[in-house]
User: What shape does this take?
Amino acid sequence: MDRPRIGVTLADPGASSDPEAAATKNRRYLEALERAGAEPLPLDERDSKTLRVEAWAAMDGLLLSGGADIDPARYGEALTGARSVQPGRDALEDEAYRAALAAGVPVLGVCRGLQAINVFAGGSLMQHLDGHEGEPYPSSEVTRHRLELAADSRLAAILGDASELEVNSYHHQAITADRLAPGLRISAIAEHADVGDLVEAVESTDPDRWLVGVQCHPERTESSPPVFERLWQAFVAASAERAGRRS
Assistant: This one.
């Protein structure tokens, strides 16, 4: 069977203060998909409307990757803590997300991608919190915290017996339960001393809809529990199944 084709929204390295580091981050997502047996279709905000339309039509799944903050105007708030917003990327990913929903293909969101799913589905974000933002990648200094899975969630079923997980943490924005979008359910949380539980993973409330978002970075294998390779494999397998139904 041919490898499923996964649309991947990425940061434009040229918009970063460190283009080389940004390109390295992008590459890690593509490598994770390739390890799991997929063919990535990478796009960033510089790509033309024609290329985007072709990718949306061809994709068997969609990965929304990590990166800069989402413009708070997307969820009806003024700028009060978000930084380095990139409206062009927001527009690209909104378009990609709508195309994925319309086509019924699996969606995986990582870090910013989790937050994007929540915003595009009608939720909002806490624009800044302390304590979960580690040293900029690829520093070897990694901030970690415990992750508590919802026992009956899709994510728990994928990761299996993983009750003592510690994950990497690179985010200064977050989702709290009161900011969760309609149609999403919480599949993992992490404690925060100041604000209580943070939403660290979400999924669709529709059990037939493969949509998962995680706040940690499972593509960074040097700081992720090995069990997270199962998440890439499950996403690619779901995309392959979708490809098989379309062929």
